[in-house]
Write a structure and sequence with these properties.
The complex is a heterodimer.
Chain A: E1 4-9, H1 18-27, E2 47-56, E3 59-68, H2 76-80, E4 87-89, E5 95-97, H3 107-111, E6 118-120, E7 125-127, H4 133-136, H5 144-148, E8 154-158, H6 162-170, H7 179-182, E9 186-189, E10 194-202, E11 207-208, E12 213-218, E13 223-227, E14 233-239, E15 243-250, E16 253-261, E17 267-273
Parallel strand pairs in A: 1-9, 10-17
Antiparallel strand pairs in A: 1-8, 2-3, 4-5, 6-7, 10-11, 10-14, 12-13, 12-15, 15-16
Chain B: E1 17-22, E2 34-40, E3 43-49, E4 66-68, E5 71-73, H1 83-86, H2 89-92, E6 102-104, E7 131-133, H3 136-153, E8 159-162, H4 179-183, E9 190-193, H5 200-210, H6 224-231, E10 234-238, H7 246-249, H8 253-263, E11 267-271, H9 279-282, E12 285-287, H10 294-307, H11 313-319, E13 320-321, H12 323-330, H13 341-348, H14 352-364, E14 367-371, H15 384-396, E15 406-408, H16 427-430, H17 438-442, E16 455-458, H18 462-468, E17 471-474, E18 489-492, E19 505-509, H19 513-516, H20 520-526, E20 534-539, E21 551-554, E22 563-567, E23 575-580, H21 593-603, H22 607-611, H23 616-626, H24 635-641, E24 643-646, H25 660-664, E25 678-679, H26 683-688, E26 722-725, H27 741-744, E27 751-752, E28 758-759, E29 761-764, H28 766-769, E30 779-784, E31 787-795, E32 803-805, E33 814-816, E34 820-821, E35 847-853, H29 856-865, H30 867-870, E36 874-875, E37 879-880
Parallel strand pairs in B: 8-9, 8-19, 9-16, 10-11, 10-14, 11-12, 13-25, 14-15, 19-20, 20-21, 26-32, 29-31, 31-34
Antiparallel strand pairs in B: 1-2, 2-3, 4-5, 6-7, 6-21, 17-18, 22-23, 23-24, 26-35, 27-28, 29-32, 30-31, 30-35, 33-34, 36-37
Helix pairs in contact in B: 3-21, 5-15, 10-13, 10-14, 10-15, 13-14, 18-20
The chains are: A alpha+beta, B alpha/beta.
Chain lengths: 275, 890
């Protein structure tokens, strides 16, 4: 049996929250010592579904991303733990906080760069995702979150599985600047980047303009082009965060936008009159 | 997108018992969302999706397969329930469970009707007074005596049965209507006839164009799932949310279908005021539209097609009646107002150029209109108009032609199984009527689809019936009633010589009028009328309308009973039958809804009459064999494995898709209309209601009428300038599941106010919030003349300017009964007016409101004036608690 990895295809995540909620179903009120003690009824999110609204009316999309313990190979939490064997990595790669050994010092809670460790005041324990190790040990092939996922966006694989290898090659990790340092075991596919979009129209005729050329120039000089569709819409979706210049041309007329800054957000230029 | 069926099963880790439960919430006989419930030492450990291939070789299911453009859609071998189905143990263990029978402290059954003070009935205190514990024996005796007294005094029709609705999926211990097993054998009762909620526009409108339909929607709809994939270029999802509303009825299969459409290149356009959960992830184009203004956009589309000659003229000539009248109206020949894109844009908020682009794109493509019920489109004032215009639009582009359908997405049109075959969705249940168990099994469930009471009141008119003592209505609203029923005038009461009488007692099971239907405030107020001498409620949780009852019987959840659930409706990977053995013992003194009725029946000497002598096990087995599921898997094997899967019919592809036969040959395959054609102009409507300007013989734009004045052009819009839209909740099925701590933690679940209370979210755009000084997390008051509801603001771009959105169904928590609600039960302020004068549907989306920030000062003022509202036991995790309404034991 190889080591476990999570591969999450955000492009198929419909935001149902089944993953976040079945994690609670498994771990609230259930004691899985020595893997985990119960988490409190509310307030901890061993798997947390995060949401991001992208764009402005009417060019808006929502992107979801399950966020959980990365079960790092060089876990900072393990390094910080002073108690022998209280925070350990199993043979299958899952990182476990031993509820019988944890002394409640909170060092790991404060230190985790992903913010996925929680402190249970009543039990005086640090707690986090266990990868449902207690279920895997009983023969489940995947944790509760993956079992409940209706679109199969969230999966656990053996990293030796050729299918997993092929996906990992295309995938990214969360907070990539940490990748080489902590070596996370959770991979994401299809996390959206940015977009620049708008609708081109003729204000005199009150008609959309179809087939106009849209040219987007990045700061590094690379160029993308597209055409406005049957609604007069153009979308440059999946562009890297950065600053862009845009030019729209049709029938000898043109409109330009310089310095479109998508570093933090997507840009919807709205309904753009071309006169 | 192939189903990933290599994944092995989940297991009952840590459990000593596993049972199966259908945890959909559509209610009654139609199950959905099968789950495995693991139990240890009498306590539920977990609920996980059922894997259909855990006990059977999936080859025996004859799995279906749909391929297009080199991509394949296949079933999954696991069910895909909603998150609150998987969290359902929190419903069984809710701190709001009614633990024992209750009597209202100041209601004395010995008091004379109308009496107040000590020893009186004090109906004026309903909704205010607390409750005291009584025994089952005492409760059943009081109810039995009240029934006898009422029957003697007024006759059997003086008891109103509210026995309909959505709820848990249970066959034997039906969540609704069990009281009819008793009362039907004691001379009858007045039936609250359920209105086709969520189908309003189609039921009261579209039926007049294409006939009865499936509650007014396109019928037949066989195989349209495959046909849309094969032939549609584009699906326009108009109003509904196929990523949300299916949750209660089928689970999340529709989500996979929507992703598949994208994979194979089918465009998805969403027309809705909010970026609903499906639009948020699947839309190629979102066209925001002001709530309930869809008819304007539809008319403008028709205008473009007529003036640019881009519709199927031949089809219109051969398959429809009355197009000339539509044309004259649209071109402005009738009223001098051409329904141009410019005209429409002012009404609906869609830019002129976008309207034109949509109309032209549509005409070029093969387009299906998709719904999952109507969202803001089919539940508002005059909803029959956009619902009818939708059929005109489809008709103008060759409705029935490959790829041109009205699709209730995956609700119909999936590959059929060997049992249901070509029958409509009631079909296999009809087999039960041939068995000795038929009447016993089906009667309780009749309340929802059928109008069968001796005396009837539409659900939407109960408060008027009480207040005025009489109502008249056209059409009972029963789901299964023929279209022509809508032309028939009914009265309540019926003539005295037929036993007609006003109602003086109400027996309600799992009620939620205050939060799920029209004019919740008026309904609750009406229930205080002294002429209603006794209200009996049976329900698992102490909430909503139950707080107006005089006697409350604690009933239990599906997790606490033995039952069976045929999950035979389309819309999941497979259909199945689930044997639902009891998971846990009943909580407190709760009994099943059926057992509760039996307790009363016993006091009346009617137990044998109610049970017909059948045991629970006989009824469960009788269901299984009566519906012929034993032809798939014999009873003993089913009992052992606790479920079976209905194999896909080998010839499932043979059923012509939707109205294909009508499209191909309308003469040989007439529609169930008087002319056999699509009646764009309905002679029947004209004959029945010649002066009805709200639902004219052809569909129109109705700015305002005698029933409603809710447009932004209204004078009222000065005080109430925003349009409210309301949809089925993401985290509920109607009023169910509002108290699950984990769904309340979701971003759009509840919003925590500065006072720590978890408020129902109110979505608004920054352009609405900023001038009102509102930010996300603020407590806001949503109000009109009818009252006010407190919500928590969510300010973002997921909704268009000029609109606020609050979903219906939150549990009411009145600060001032019944005009100021803290729980977010938005329907408290919904219009009293029905769909229109002659259409007794509810209109609960698309009406005028204003929103204002609630300051700490205002909240403190309310706390000073109404301390009892703020000192009730409350915990944000699950909301209101049972103990809040219980008087200390004496």
């Amino acid at each position: 049996m190889g080591k476990k990895v999570f591969i999450i295809d955000v492009g198929k995540c419909n935001g149902c929250y089944c993953c976040q909620i079945v994690c609670k179903d498994e771990h609230v009120g259930n004691d899985w010592t020595p893997i985990a003690k119960p988490q409190p009824e509310v307030g901890q999110f061993w798997l947390e579904l995060t949401e991001r609204v992208r764009g402005t009316v009417p060019k808006v999309k929502v992107s979801y991303r399950p966020h959980l313990c990365m079960h790092c190979d060089d876990a900072p939490c393990m390094a910080a733990c002073k108690v022998e064997g209280a925070l350990y990595k199993r043979g299958d790669g899952l990182v476990i906080i031993d509820p019988l050994k944890c002394t409640g010092c909170k060092a790991c809670v404060d230190l985790c760069p992903y913010g996925v460790i929680y402190f249970n005041e009543d039990l005086n324990l640090a707690q986090k995702c266990t990868g449902c190790a207690h279920l895997l040990d009983d023969g489940w092939s995947e944790p509760r979150c993956a079992d409940a996922c209706p679109t199969l966006a969230l999966k656990m694989y053996d990293e030796d599985d050729p299918e997993a290898q092929a996906l990992i090659a295309k995938a990214q990790v969360w907070m990539p600047e940490l990748k080489d340092k902590v070596k996370p075991r959770v991979y994401y596919l299809n996390i959206p980047k940015r977009f620049i979009a708008g609708t081109l129209y003729d204000p005199v005729e009150e008609e959309v303009i179809i087939g106009a050329k849209a040219t987007l120039k990045a700061a590094d000089g690379s160029v993308l082009t597209t055409e406005t569709d049957s609604y007069g819409d153009f979308w440059f979706e999946g562009i890297e965060p950065g600053v862009y210049d845009l030019e729209l041309t049709y029938g000898g007329k043109s409109k330009s936008f310089a310095g479109l800054d998508t570093t933090e957000v997507e840009i919807n230029l709205g309904d753009i009159p071309l006169t | 997108m192939a189903g990933d069926n290599k994944r092995p099963q989940s297991k009952p880790t840590g459990a000593d018992k596993t049972v199966l439960k259908a945890l959909g919430l559509s209610g009654g006989i139609f199950g959905a969302c099968p789950c495995a419930v693991d139990v240890k030492d009498g306590k539920i450990i977990r609920i996980r999706p059922l894997h259909w291939d855990s006990e059977y070789d999936p080859k025996t299911f004859n799995p279906w397969k749909i391929t297009k453009n080199g991509k394949t859609l296949e079933p999954l071998y696991k069910a895909v329930p909603a998150p609150w189905s998987l969290a359902y143990k929190k419903r069984a263990y809710s701190p709001n469970r009614i633990k024992y029978p209750l009597k209202r402290v100041d209601w004395d059954p010995n008091g004379a009707p109308g009496s107040v003070g000590p020893g009186g009935r004090n109906t004026q205190n309903r909704g205010k007074s607390k409750y005291v514990r009584i025994s089952w024996d005492e409760a059943a005796t009081i109810i039995a005596n009240e029934i006898k007294r009422i029957h003697k005094e007024y006759g059997p029709l003086a008891i109103l049965v509210q026995g309909d609705g959505h709820g848990e999926c249970k066959m034997v211990h039906a969540p609704h209507g069990c009281s009819t097993l008793l009362l039907d054998k004691m001379g009858g009762f007045t039936q609250q006839v359920r209105n086709p909620d969520s189908w309003e526009g189609w039921y009261w409108g579209s039926r007049h164009i294409w006939g009865k339909g499936l509650v007014g929607m396109m019928n037949p709809a066989d195989n349209i799932v495959n046909d849309v994939i094969q032939h549609s270029d584009m699906v326009v999802v108009w109003g509904g949310d196929p990523e949300t509303t299916p949750w209660g009825f089928r689970g999340q299969f529709a989500s996979r279908l929507l992703y598949f459409w994208t994979e194979v290149g089918i465009k998805q356009v969403y027309i809705c005021p909010d970026l609903n959960y499906a639009a948020a992830i699947h839309a190629d184009k979102w066209i925001p539209i002001l709530p309930n203004t869809d008819a304007a956009l539809q008319l403008a589309i028709i205008y473009i097609w007529i003036t640019e000659d881009t519709y199927d003229k031949e089809y219109v000539a051969t398959h429809t009646v009355g197009f000339d009248k539509i044309k004259a109206y649209v071109l402005g020949e009738e009223d001098g107002i051409p329904k141009t894109p410019k005209w429409a844009s002012e009404k609906c908020g869609v830019p002129v150029w976008t309207i034109k682009a949509l109309a032209r794109d549509w005409a070029k493509k093969t387009v299906t209109i998709g719904h999952y019920f109507g969202g803001g489109m089919a539940r508002g004032p005059y909803s029959h108009e956009p619902a009818r215009l939708e059929v005109v639009i489809l008709g103008m582009q060759g409705l029935g032609k490959p790829g041109v359908h009205q699709a209730q997405i995956a609700y119909t049109g999936m590959p059929k199984n060997v049992i249901t075959g070509g029958a409509d969705h009631m079909g296999p249940f009809a087999n039960l009527t041939a068995t000795p168990y038929g009447e016993r099994l089906l009667k309780p469930h009749r309340g929802t689809p059928t109008a069968w009471g001796k005396q009837m009141i539409p659900k939407t008119m109960i408060e008027e019936a009480i207040k005025k003592g009489k109502v008249e209505f056209w059409g009972t609203g029963g789901h299964e009633e023929p279209t022509a029923d809508q032309y028939k005038k009914y009265t309540y009461p019926i003539p005295k010589e037929e036993g007609g009488t006003e109602i003086h007692m109400m027996w309600t099971d799992t009620p939620c009028r205050v939060t799920c239907w029209n004019c919740g405030s008026d309904v609750m107020e009406a229930m205080r009328d002294p002429k209603i001498e006794c209200i009996v409620a049976q329900h698992p949780w102490l909430e909503n309308d139950v707080l107006s009852a005089d006697i409350i019987l604690p009933t239990n959840t599906t997790l606490e009973v033995n039952d069976i659930s045929p999950c035979i409706r389309e819309g999941d990977s497979f259909q199945s039958v689930i044997l639902m053995n009891r998971a846990i013992e009943p909580i407190g003194e709760s009994r099943s809804d059926y057992e509760a009725v039996c307790a009363v029946a016993e006091k009346l000497g009617m137990l044998e009459a109610v049970t017909d002598g059948f045991s629970e096990q006989e009824l469960i087995r009788g269901t299984y064999e009566g519906m012929k599921f034993d032809t798939v898997v014999p009873w003993e094997e089913f009992k052992e494995k606790q479920y079976c899967v209905l194999p896909v019919a080998p010839d499932w592809e043979k059923y012509p898709a939707g109205l294909y036969n009508f499209w191909k040959d309308p003469e040989a395959n007439p529609l169930p209309t008087p002319t056999g054609k699509l009646e764009f102009w309905s002679e029947s409507l004209e004959k029945a209601f010649p002066d009805d300007e709200e639902r004219p013989p052809i569909p129109k734009w109705i700015e305002k009428g005698i029933t409603h004045d809710e447009r932004i052009s209204s004078k009222r819009a000065k005080a109430y300038p925003l349009l409210l839209m309301s949809n089925h909740g993401r985290w509920r099925t109607h009023a169910q599941c509002d108290d699950i701590p984990w769904t309340r933690e979701a971003l759009t679940g509840k919003v925590r106010g500065f006072d720590g209370y978890l408020y129902e979210p109110c979505w608004m755009h920054p352009s609405v919030a900023e001038p009102r000084g509102i930010k996300t997390g603020d407590i806001v008051k949503v109000y009109n003349e009818r009252g006010a509801v407190l919500c928590g603001a969510l300010v973002w771009e997921r909704i268009m300017p000029g609109v606020v959105s609050v979903d219906h169904g939150a549990r009411a928590d009145f600060i001032i009964p019944y005009t100021l609600d803290r729980g977010g039960a938005i329907n408290v302020i919904a219009p009293e007016g029905l769909t229109s004068r002659h259409a007794a549907g509810q209109a609960t989306s698309g009406y005028l409101v204003e929103v204002e920030k609630v300051t700490m000062g205002q909240m403190e003022e309310w706390m000073r004036q109404y301390p009892e509202a703020f000192t009730r036991e409350y915990d944000p995790a699950s909301g209101l608690r049972f103990n809040a309404w219980i008087e200390e034991e004496r």
